[in-house]
Design a protein that fits this description.
The complex is a heterodimer of chains A (112) and B (114). Chain A has no helices and eleven strands. In chain A, strands 2, 4, 5, 6, 9, 10 and 11 form a seven-stranded mixed sheet that branches. In chain A, 0% of the residues lie in helices and 58% in strands. In chain B, the strands form two sheets. In chain B, strands 1, 3, 4, 8, 9 and 10 form a six-stranded mixed sheet that branches. In chain B, strands 2-7-6-5 form a four-stranded antiparallel sheet, with no helix packed on it. The chains are: A mainly beta (112), B mainly beta (114). At the A-B interface, strand 4, strand 5, strand 9 and strand 10 of A face strand 4, strand 8 and strand 9 of B.
């Protein structure tokens, strides 16, 4: 939906390595979000962005950083991946505060 | 941010109306109620949202109580493809940026029975 592409779709990495997930949107939406989904926890907000170079922390931001140098791209970086960061990561976007949220297809990340 | 409470699971017979309840007793006056669903491991999909009036679209109806402390999502004629996890969400704002930040709980797993 809304031209959202997440890459990679699947990633297996080792503990301690850096990992970057990419969210790309073609709708010129202002707001972008990164969520993680784990069994028993639903979707939890990691970081969000309300414009280019404007970002803020969500409820589970420890161990993650983000960057938004262009409207269309929102990057999520795990500086040193840990096994507790094994999860499914979803990117979402919305154009205004009254619009619905559009989600990407997710990235399955496994940290061994 | 207002929190929501939903039953963890529900069953509904195919062809019948599925009624999914949500409690949001701490909702404030300018907060909307949103419903999303997630089928298998796909990204969540928007269904409907409302403020105080009942709403209907091609997918569902949303009934919000007069005191706005609870709501019900109604799928009028459930099909097997409606089997999914349904999330009831209250939208919050950061007033200084007018930013929207949705907080998802664990939702209700709805199973449509043939």
């Amino acid at each position: 939906d809304a031209g959202i592409t997440q890459s990679p779709r699947h990633k297996v990495t080792e503990t301690g390595t850096p990992v970057t997930l990419r969210c790309h949107q073609t709708e010129n939406h202002r707001y972008m979000y990164w969520y993680r989904q784990d069994p028993g926890h639903g979707l939890r907000l990691i970081h969000y962005s309300y414009g280019v170079k404007d970002t803020d922390k969500g409820e589970v931001s420890d161990g993650y950083s983000v960057s938004r140098s262009k409207t269309e791209d929102f990057l999520l970086t795990l500086e040193s991946a840990t096994s507790s960061q094994t999860s499914v990561y979803f990117c979402a976007t919305t154009g205004t505060t009254n619009e619905k949220l559009f989600f990407g297809s997710g990235t399955q990340l496994s940290v061994l | 941010d207002a929190k929501t409470t939903q039953p963890p699971s529900m069953d509904c017979a195919e062809g019948r109306a599925a009624n999914l309840p949500c409690n949001h007793s701490t909702i404030s006056g300018n907060e909307y109620v949103y419903w999303y669903r997630q089928i298998h491991s796909q990204g969540p999909q928007y269904i409907i949202h409302g403020l105080k009036n009942n709403e209907t679209n091609e997918m569902a109806s949303l009934i919000i109580t007069e005191d706005r402390k609870s709501s019900t999502l109604i799928l009028p004629h459930a099909t097997l493809r409606d089997t999914a996890v349904y999330y009831c969400i209250v939208r919050s704002f950061k007033s200084n940026f007018g930013n929207e930040k949705l907080t998802f709980g664990t939702g209700t797993r709805l199973t449509i029975i043939p």
